[in-house]
Amino acid sequence: MIEEYRETLEKVPMSLSDPVKPHRICVCVRKRPLNKKELAKKEIDVVTIPGNGALLLHEPKQKVDLTKYLENQTFHFDYSFDEDATNDLVYRFTAKPLVKTIFEGGMATCFAYGQTGSGKTHTMGGDFSGKSQNSSKGIYALAAQDVFTLLRQKRYADMDLCPYVTFFEIYNGKVFDLLNKKAKLRVLEDEKQQVNVVGLQEVPVSSVDDVIKMIERGSACR
């Protein structure tokens, strides 16, 4: 039923050539494909990304007279990425505009939210397959590439800007420094009502490779 319904849809997948809309807050959704375990159990893919920021959730149902039908719910986001979307595509429409904002004197945050196994680490940190990892394919590294590209531009090169990396984990209500042997940290609010992670180690970095090493080092401590 779901496959038959999908064939009736007019899909508009996103591409790198699509324009990026300006947002103060941007909420996106990314669909991951069924994994090997789910396929082995013959589980059903009940999510479709038709494009234009939409996500369809399919729920097969049955009437009292045993007639089967499909109930579809639509959810809307600023952007919706299907299971074929690459990290480069996701980065272009999510974190890339934030790098420019920071260099213009603004503040920006990008985070991934979802249950365990939904693809957060793959999106943000890169390709983690078993014990191997390729952090160069994640949003962290892609953002770092743009940061160092901008730092080399003359208008920023004269400003003596110094990038640093921090990497901490919040687990069971506790905060740990992943770049300092999982040292336990405290989160406090100062007199300006700014939240500070006390004792968090800041590591200076001078290249994308430095950032990737820090990502891999921190990820190994999780």
Automatic annotation (TrEMBL):
GO terms for cellular component: microtubule. One of its GO terms (molecular function) is ATP binding. ATP binds at G114, Q115, T116, G117, S118, G119, K120, T121. Pfam families: Kinesin. It is found in: Cytoplasm, Cytoskeleton. InterPro entries: Kinesin-like_fam (IPR027640), Kinesin_motor_dom (IPR001752), Kinesin_motor_dom_sf (IPR036961), P-loop_NTPase (IPR027417). Keywords: ATP-binding, Cell cycle, Cell division, Coiled coil, Cytoplasm, Cytoskeleton, Microtubule, Mitosis, Motor protein, Nucleotide-binding. One of its GO terms (biological process) is microtubule-based movement. SMART domains: KISc. Residues 24-222 form the Kinesin motor domain. Belongs to the TRAFAC class myosin-kinesin ATPase superfamily. Kinesin family. This is Kinesin KIF2C. It comes from Labeo rohita (Indian major carp). The lineage of its organism: Eukaryota, Metazoa, Chordata, Craniata, Vertebrata.
